[in-house]
Amino acid sequence: MAALHAGNVKALGLAPPSKLVSGSYIAALEISTLLPETLFFQPSFVRRIDLAADVHFKGGGDGQGLRCLRALASIECPPLKTDARIKNGRVETVSYQTAKGIKMRIYDKGLESGRVKSGEAAPGEWLRVETQQRYIGSKQPAPADLAQAELGKMWEGRLRGWEASENVLVGDLGGMERVLVERVQEGRLSAQKAERLLGHLQLRGRGIGKEWWNAQGQPHLWGRRSKELRDLGLILDEDGLGTQKEVAELPLGQLLASLRRAWPSSTPE
Predict the structure, then answer these.
(1) pTM, 2 dp
(2) Which of 58, 75, 125, 248 is the most exposed place for a label (fewest CB within 10 A)?
(3) Domain boundaries of the chain, sorted by first residue
């Protein structure tokens, strides 16, 4: 949308929902240059919309943005499947999808735009979050109607389950074991629950994951343990933290909540 209004395919910014109507006019004019008749006065509808927001990590070189990507790549987001694109040991894109396509994705916009290569941005400094919505047939809304819709609701139900944890802890197997033991010693976690989760983490850290439990006909056990860890704000980084072997604390819940709130319940006229 920003590229349409700027008349420049390389424009990297984002446009507000209020630009949907004027964007449809610009698109009609551009397409009309390829046709014998104009489409300017024809009604237009939205087939797909990507709600996007940018997250900038101050001092991106400290790796917090990269750790956030790795954390997002490690979490479960049922009923969506988590898929991570990793290159040279670094998470570049995390997608949450169904069999019909991507519903939400988070990626390193600085890397995708070439700014990391040119030295204008550090890896993980500029992340873009997108939630995708497709409309079929008669359900395709007019741009003006969509601009006035409660777009913020499109964020709900994706990663909202993680908003309950203001901060989450991301660590390798050893780090997670230390956290659970410390919480028992502090009286914040029962020994029985810690014992159960320690066993789960030991198996998971050694490759016995979701597929294995599915093959045993017990996918509910995987889901149950994953929810317990999620409720505690704990994420097992099965690939490790690169050179960062400590348990990393990330304001993931706060970040997700702020992204959802960035979209108003409705756009004023």
Answers:
(1) 0.73
(2) 58
(3) 1-44, 47-142+154-160+256-269, 173-236
